[in-house]
Design a protein that fits this description.
The protein has 134 residues and is mainly alpha-helical. It contains six helices and no strands.
């Protein structure tokens, strides 16, 4: 009986740092914009969000160019999620600034933006992972 032992090594840290670290940084930048919403003028907030969205686009483009594949991969789903979260936050921040006279409505949009960010984001990451791998 003939047996072979194959030992494969793969470098994990470098691809992890180059692919997932930008996503984590952008998630934290989005949250920093959300937390600063009550204390920032709408024009400044919109400019900050535009800069974050542009950074997301550049990072997504960089991943697509580096991999050179024709299908959507698991990591790209995070970028799509960031696009959705950024768009949703822009809508909520606009509603927040439009309701400057109605404090109840203003607090509702503040709670939706700040308090529900992490639970919704982690739930969506879980749903993406389940959808992708099961």
């Amino acid at each position: 009986m003939l047996t072979y032992t194959v030992h494969l090594e793969r470098e994990f840290i470098s691809p992890f740092a180059t692919a997932l670290l930008p996503v984590l940084v952008m998630i934290c930048l989005l949250y920093a914009c959300i937390v600063s919403m009550p204390y920032t003028a709408y024009d400044d907030l919109r400019n900050n969000m535009t800069a974050v969205i542009f950074t997301i686009l550049l990072a997504h483009y960089s991943i697509r160019e580096h991999l050179q594949i024709d299908e959507v991969i698991y990591l790209e789903m995070f970028y799509f999620l960031l696009y959705i979260v950024a768009s949703l936050f822009l809508y909520l921040s606009q509603q927040f600034y439009l309701s400057k006279d109605d404090m109840d409505r203003k607090n509702k949009f503040k709670v939706l933006s700040i308090d529900w960010y992490w639970p919704v984001l982690t739930s969506m990451i879980l749903c993406i992972t389940i959808y992708t791998y099961y």
